[in-house]
Amino acid sequence: MYRFLLSRQWVILTLLAVLLIPTMIWLGFWQMHRYEERTARNDLVARALEAAPVAAESLTAPGEKITTRERYRTVTAKGRFDTDHEVVVRRRTDADDNIGYHVLTPFVLDDGKVMLVNRGWIPADGPSQTEYPDVPAPPRGEITVTGRLMPDETTEASGIKDLEGLPDRQIMLISSEQQAERLGAPVLGGYVVLKTPEPKGDTPEPIGRPGNENAALNFAYAIQWWLFAAAVPVGWWFLVRREQRDREAAENVEPTRTEPAAV
């Protein structure tokens, strides 16, 4: 009755269905894993942002790496900005995807150590970007700053290449190790995205707080893949039944009788 399933066409179709089912089930589990990862990351970021501010040196020290649990923690420090050794970070965008720079200013603490502070975004001056841009000055004298603690930037994490031969006082990635070499001073690991004091005027433009990743989308994709996996055998059986009905209908059709031609 279903001998047609042994035909080349149906063998290929059946094998394809057999392969699709586990593949779609695996994709559903992969999306669910991404959902759990993103949910955990969102929870971690939310806890870090809501935590009470602590002294920067309680979470980082020269040569130390910032862990995922320390990332985004609000830290405070007392000292002064060293604008003589300020640099800008190239190819950074604002909220509207305009290309410019991040302003990275050393902040000298009372004990002589240096904390790198990303003061925000400024627009690029012209298309060449070879000259040092006009950077608004930070507050002078001894002040207290607060900001979000961030790990050093790497090519692997950011996708940005650490190019050589850049114009003076311009960098591609924020690295406390490289800045310690340049400054000849002990630099705390990672850097801080400035929250307060807020810049006066329009620039540097403050860097917004991190948003939540869309974990719900991964959950929806997981359900979608599993529904697709369930639909494959249903669709296969529907095609088999339709093929069988078409074959039975073709067998039951009587041949058309023709009248003999008139002599």
TrEMBL record:
The chain crosses the membrane at residues 12-32, 219-239. It is found in: Cell membrane; Membrane. It comes from the Bacteria. Keywords: Cell membrane, Membrane, Transmembrane, Transmembrane helix. It is a multi-pass membrane protein. InterPro entries: Surf1/Shy1 (IPR002994), Surf1/Surf4 (IPR045214). Belongs to the SURF1 family. This is SURF1-like protein. It comes from Streptomyces lienomycini. The lineage of its organism: Bacteria, Bacillati, Actinomycetota, Actinomycetes, Kitasatosporales.
